[in-house]
């Protein structure tokens, strides 16, 4: 058992830099070469330097030779690998696990150093508080006595104190007990029982989303629970892992933040920050067409959020209004990264390609924008969960994604162009009376994309300005001519006067009216049969998946598939058992 530290816990502190990792003699730097000193003596005295004594030839240690070969091999790893080994190393799964291992150890050591710094600070505050009450610790008495001896003074009696009182010892023991409680709590695994479920706020094909509060910290979160076996059956494991990786990598207010990720035998859990204003689809359904200044505000924030995702090295590929949430201040946050680049199911790509190839030129129905808008609104009213259908809607997806061709970040700009069109027109640019017509419009998008023109006096306000239409066609375009960077967007006249770097300082057009931090008024009520009717198709999909046979060779929930999933330390971040407010600037915060 490792010895207890000064503050009574047994957390291993970092080793001293001069200590051997094997507990033997300290390792020191080698001495400087004596050659300069010998030359100096020869110059000043004229004496020739003594010849070095012959050394006995060192025997070759097999272990040392093997270690040397290993070091050389590691330096030339690329050249030494066999072709099959290179294929393994370059596989996405291995690269992801290697990256996760690096991130894990970096986070582990940073967290350990932060914990040690906090623990020392709590001990210092405890001792300072005891001194204010007139108590002096035995260690401080010894230090004061030694300080007096070093100054040449005669040994002095310890200053009057109540160090021998039982009250000091009891207070010190209580402090150490609180520290041990914090340490034991850090080592405990996260479990669902540590979250109080408030209510359900979401339902998907693979699980549910709950509003939950962590019992020890009081943190409010959106807890997504997903079934392992269903994810394995549907080949959706990569999607969940990609979403987890993006959520852990983000440090920006534009992307939903992950608080914890953990698992049990049958489920994986993602505890994310709770965004109480609901999704943007709900806002669109209630508002219809947006005024141009409001559309400019929201699409600007969406561009910034998507750009933050691109800076992390990911492409979303499935942007739609449902993927944007509204926070308590009315600003945008991007979520739902399951189809981000690197995780799109090849089977789904083939399905989408076949769907497009089956559409013929004659299948396209020419409709006026007004007719298309009316049909889209009617379809939305009939099927509120239209975007969550089993097949999925291509309303906002770029053609190159659906066809499985090579693409870059500009596919997300196509999607944002479709969303901007819907903001200003009230319906997506390629919507049809039914999904098959939407597919046909998308295949013939150059013909289907039309600028709505209204002649009636009461509808003139819905006509697009030339600047807005030009912005839309710069986004809904061929990959070669499409905007592909935030700099291109910022330079367009539609965004004249908009500072994309300071969008969160601009008051939002709509601010959610919340009664408390647990308000779920902007989400569906899962106790209301009318709201639950919207999820009929989702529930049918769940039953269909549950009836499918499990994948061969997977009988344990795919334990190996979830390596590196867990995220977040299990301790009271906000208010530990022994409260100790962090100073505004510490050595640790400066270091990192």
From TrEMBL:
This chain belongs to the protein called non-specific serine/threonine protein kinase
Q: What class of enzyme is it?
A: transferase
Q: What is its EC number?
A: 2.7.11.1
GO MF annotation: an example = ATP binding
Q: Which residue ranges have biased composition labelled Polar residues?
A: 583-592
Q: Which Gene3D superfamilies match?
A: Phosphorylase Kinase, domain 1, Transferase(Phosphotransferase) domain 1
GO-annotated cellular components: spindle pole body
Under the heading Pfam families, the entry gives: Pkinase
Ranges for the region named Disordered are 1-74, 573-592
Tell me the SMART domains matching this sequence: S_TK_X, S_TKc
| Residues noted as binding ATP in the record, renumbered to the chain | 224
What region holds the AGC-kinase C-terminal domain?
496-577
* PANTHER family assigned: CELL CYCLE PROTEIN KINASE DBF2-RELATED, SERINE/THREONINE-PROTEIN KINASE
Q: What keywords sit in the KW lines?
A: ATP-binding, Kinase, Nucleotide-binding, Phosphoprotein, Serine/threonine-protein kinase, Transferase
Q: Where is the Protein kinase domain?
A: 195-495
Q: Reaction(s) catalyzed by this protein? A: L-threonyl-[protein] + ATP = O-phospho-L-threonyl-[protein] + ADP + H(+); L-seryl-[protein] + ATP = O-phospho-L-seryl-[protein] + ADP + H(+)
Q: Which GO terms describe its biological process?
A: intracellular signal transduction
